Amino acid sequence: MLKKNTTELGKTISEAREKIGISQRELARQSNMDCAEVSRIEAGKRLKPNVLYLKGIAETLNLSMVDLMKLAGYNDMEINWGQDFSDRRATADYQKQIKSYEQFYFDILEELETRRKTDFAIKGGIADLIDKLELAKIENKEISNDEILDRLKELIPMIRPNLEKFDKSKYPSFDSGVFPKMEIQSDVKYPTVPKNLLDKKD
Q1: What's the pLDDT score for residue 119?
Q2: Is the pLDDT of residue 161 over 50?
Q3: Rounded Cα–Cα distance for residues 43 and 35 (Å)
Q4: Contact yes or no for 71/5 (Cβ under 8 A)
Q5: In terms of C-beta density within 10 A (0-12 exposed, 13-18 middle, 19 or more buried), how is residue 172 classed?
Q6: pLDDT > 50? residue 190
Q7: Which residues contact 33 (CB under 8 A, 6 or more apart)?
Q8: What's the N-to-C CA distance of the chain in angstroms?
Q9: How confident is the model at residue 19 (pLDDT cuts 50, 70, 90)?
Q10: Residue-level pLDDT at 202
Q11: Burial class (CB in 10 A: 0-12, 13-18, 19+), 115
C-alpha cells in the first residue's frame, strides 16, 4: 500500500513538473533540495519524503501539500495535528479552501434566487385567489369551497422546496490547518460585582 502511494506521489509530481515545463534539476533548485532526491521521489524510490521537501515541491508546482502528504503515506494525525501548520500547508491548500467558500457563496445565491422566484409564484397564486374571492363578494356571487381548496392544493407543493434545508453536500470543505482555531488572549481585566452585593436584599 505504501509503495502504491509513493508511486502515485511520484507520478503526481512528475506530471505537474512536466506540465509547467521545468526539469528535475530546476524543480530541485526552486524547492531547495538535491536533484537526486527529486529523481528518487518521482521514481518511487523515496518512501515518505521529508515534509520540507514536499513543501518546496508543493509551492513550486502549485500542488496541495495535504494531497502530497497523503500520497506519501502520512496519516491524518501527522497532517492535521499540532500547533504550527505552516510547514504542512502550501499556497494551493489555501487557494483550494478559498475556492470552496466561493463556490458555497455562489450556490447559496443561486438557491436564494430560485426560492425567491418560487415565492413570487406563490404570491401570485394567493393574490389570484384573493381577487376571485373579492370579485365574488362584489358581484354577490358564491365561489365554491372546492375551487378554493383546489387552488390551495396547487400552492402547497410549491411552498415545500422553500422549507427544505440547504443541501449539505454543497457545504464548503473545512481544513483546520488553513483556518486553525484562534485563541483570543487579553490582559484586560473586567470589573466584577462582588458576590456579597449580588446576594444583598433591599
Answers
A1: 92
A2: yes
A3: 12
A4: yes
A5: middle
A6: no
A7: 53, 56, 57
A8: 75
A9: very high
A10: 47
A11: middle
